[in-house]
Design brief:
Layout (H helix, E strand, L loop, with lengths): L1 E11 L5 E12 L3 E7 L5 H8 L9 E4 L2 E4 L3 H11 E4 L11 H11 L6 H10 L15 H14 L4 E5 L7 H14 L4 E5 L3 H7 L2 E6 L2 E5 L21 H14 L1 H28 L2 H8 L4 E5 L4 H5 L15 H13 L3 E8 L6 E4 L2 E4 L15 H8 L4 E3 L2 H4 L3 E3 L7 E5 H10 L14 E2 L7 E7 L19 E4 L2 H4 L6 E8 L6 H8 L1 E2 L2 E2 L2 H44 L1 H10 L3 H41 L17 H27 L3 H6 L2
Parallel strand pairs: 3-8, 3-9, 6-7, 7-8, 15-20, 17-19
Antiparallel strand pairs: 1-2, 1-4, 4-5, 9-10, 11-21, 12-15, 12-21, 13-14, 16-19, 17-20, 18-19, 22-23
The structure holds adenosine-5'-diphosphate and magnesium ion (MG).
Amino acid sequence: MIKLINANKTYTSKAGIKVKALDHVNLDFNAKGLVFILGKSGSGKSSLLNILGGLDSANTSKIVINGQEFKRFDDRTCSIYRNTHVGFIFQEYNLMNNLDVYENIALALRLQNKEVDQSKVMDMLKLVDLQGLERRRLDELSGGQKQRVAIARALIKDPTIILADEPTGNLDSQTSNQIFEVLKRLSKDKLVIVVSHDREFAEQFGDRIITLKDGSVDEDTQKKVDETFIELPESIRARLPFVLKAKMSFENIVQNKLRLMVTVMIVSFLVAVLSAVYTALYVSADVTGDLMDLSKQTQLVLSEPIPFTQAEVINPKLNDSSPKKLNGEALVELQRISDNHHAILFPKTHMWENEDWLRIKDLGLTVQNPESLASDVVIRPNTELLETIEEASLIFISNRKVLERERLGRLPEDRFELVISSALAQYVLASQGKALDDYPSLLDQFLNLGTFHRLKIVGIVYDEALLLRGDQTILNTTYTNLYVHPSFLRYNPLPTHLVSYGVQMTEQTNTHALIEDLKTVGSVTLLPRITDRLNRYTRHELNLLMAVLVPIIGYFAIIFLGNYIASSILKRKKQIGILRALGAEIKEVQWIFMIEILFVGILIVGLVLVMVPFMIDILNFIFKVHFYDTFIAYFHYDIFSLGVGHFIEVISLLALVNLVIVFTLTYHINILDPVEIITGR
Ligand code: ADP
Ligand code: MG
């Protein structure tokens, strides 16, 4: 026996006027039979049915089945109640248009977590006289057939009550008659409550007729109710199968292709811009330190700048009037500072003599005519060597760290001695017709380097050292690395070379303190010109850029994505309503959008990751142009680069935006009752 106790419903219209749709209605129902609810339009019939069906939670009514109370439902109990006890039939059929007849009926079973038993679905189809139509699409059915599909869907759940709100409202009288015959058949062992305005049918088919007037029971043909207990099914929480959720998501994605593409493009672009700028900011937050990190060797290279106009001429004659040439005093100061900070000062010289054999290429020096190297110790360069040094510079290094590696011979002890790399040694050996591993034979030979003084080879280092990283770096060749004594360059009589000095940090070195001290060496201001510009450029300009970009881009990203999802939700309002009416919880419905936004998110992340490297290239380009004249030793490096952190940033940023959107947007489904979603009120 089913009791409806104190069914009350007051609507407040938008204008604030209160309409009493139901006024303290109390009704008892038998476990079986066909009950008609009649009444004029607006008398409260639908309101009553919606409360009975658990479609409308915003009321103070109680439903008691066998003494088990359902009242003031939260979403979950409401959904469970609908899913377990109610089979609802609507005037507008409310079938899922994207599913065929069979799947529409099966959906009710799936929501109840029941195996879809094909023969059971077929039996239902037979019961409502639809055999053979199981694979029909819904738009290939007549109104009467659709309504019978809806009846089959309600029935297959084996609900406690079947509720029908004007099921024949859209049908002609002959079809209506058939529908009522079906309902009559069902009412032999189920309670079927039908809202109608057709007294004739009610009198023909009804076991009981309740007439409503202004929200109250006006007439009831049945006074006595039998108290038979109803066998109650166990409560079932609705679960939308994942496949179905995913299917719904993808259907919508496919339907919204264009919108999706535009959204994805715009949002990815915005996020990519933001992400690239953010990276730039991140990298340059402490740009000096980061520059150091960028060169893996933690060396700080102080180069004397070559003005580019000069660097471009074939035969540059750098002289002491070069604006940043370190004088002897500054050099001593540099040495002192390095010592103070437990750092090692070493000269690094890119040198050339005249246009015959060396020229400047970009910032590096290229060996133009290597034959001139071959004068004393005969190096007859083969093509391979030529190619190698073509892109390289001849570099003198007294980098002790490198020299401490596996080595033959000893370190240079004065400026007339040097250590060569094993690679170079091999070329020398080859040119002398010796075995390539006969390194000892080279020791104590002399290497003539143009007008530099002759240098004695005292050691060979097994060298594959890449001193600085990067593909285009000028320092990464091992062939031309010549390791000399630190004094070599200081005593070098030739003015026609460009000197750069390296400060190699050790474990005890405090990088930042060292940099501070190095900013001004003697009367020469070394670092400020570079770091000040870096810092100004990065900290201030990028911060400002971010401050402007983040809100704007965030705003647009949310608008575009939000718009996409909102339209997606709106388009499926009806489907959602149907699922909810069948008993699906809000959470289950949210999943559909989660899957969709996840897919959109993946698309965006993918695109962003394609775009970001390009943007970073642009940033690097801007950066390089900006510092074109400063001759930073890292000129060849890309200051900004794409890293793992970047992927994480992009993904978490998007995940955040997406979550915000799905939750805010689906929130208003939360507060809507299924009946409101269906009727679109
Ligand atoms: P019936 O189904 O018998 O036509 P309803 O139950 O739909 O009646 O409506 C009963 C009364 O409540 C009517 O006066 C109707 O205008 C009003 N009403 C129904 N739904 C709403 C709503 N969402 N907002 C405001 N008034 C409503
Ligand atoms: Mg109505």
